[in-house]
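Hypothesis: this fold can be encoded by more than one sequence.
Test: take the structure tokens below, design a sequence, compare later.
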């Protein structure tokens, strides 16, 4: 039976399958269970888990619904990586790589990907340690990981080869954009967040390091 969570999800993804809805609700249950043992997200946000984390993550999928290769950096408690992995089951042949250096969180991510039969892989390593291991994806995601100019440095090997980034940013995003322009050139599209009027999804492509940056 439909509940408020499905209704809210369909506002963002109108054609999502019932199977996928069930998977996302199941992930919420798994997340809450593991959160009792390890810190997967700020306790202050758990009362709004569906909106603050799951819907916030799901909004990325319709921006590139046909992308086949995804990469999520600093996956933490699975946002947006595991949410995208579950949604990607509706896109035949699509897969996602998740990079998370924290061992306990990486274990949770592996459990989640396996439980929901997703086409994903967890890399328990630092981001710079997997540059050569993970081929250039279509889309790179990162949520609450680092300032924008640091994200450019962390993702440069992939962005320079044609990947597009979807970086989720909060109210200080304008300052981060301006600070980044001193060292980097890039194409930018700003997508309003569906969960917070002060937040955005920054769609970034054609990233080039300015000659003065080392």
């Amino acid at each position: 039976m439909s509940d408020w969570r499905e209704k809210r999800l369909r506002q963002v993804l109108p054609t999502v399958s019932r199977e996928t809805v069930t998977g996302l609700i199941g992930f919420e249950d798994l997340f809450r269970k593991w959160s009792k043992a390890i810190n997967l997200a700020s306790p202050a946000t758990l009362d709004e888990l569906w909106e603050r984390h799951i819907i916030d993550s799901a909004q990325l999928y319709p921006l590139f619904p046909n992308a086949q290769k995804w990469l999520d950096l600093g996956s933490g408690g699975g946002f947006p990586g595991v949410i995208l992995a579950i949604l990607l089951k509706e896109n035949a042949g699509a897969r996602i790589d998740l990079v998370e250096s924290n061992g306990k969180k990486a274990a949770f991510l592996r459990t989640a990907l396996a439980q929901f039969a997703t086409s994903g892989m967890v890399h328990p390593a630092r981001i710079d340690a997997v540059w050569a291991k993970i081929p250039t994806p279509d889309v790179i995601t990162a949520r609450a990981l680092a300032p924008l100019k640091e994200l450019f440095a962390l993702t440069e090997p992939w962005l320079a080869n044609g990947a597009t980034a979807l970086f989720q940013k909060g109210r200080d995003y304008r300052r981060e954009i301006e600070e980044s322009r001193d060292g980097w050139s890039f194409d930018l599209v700003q997508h309003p967040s569906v969960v917070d009027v002060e937040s955005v999804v920054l769609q970034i492509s054609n990233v080039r390091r300015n000659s003065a940056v080392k």
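The first strand starts at residue 69 and ends at 73. DSSP finds seven helices and seven strands in the chain.
Hypothesis status: open.
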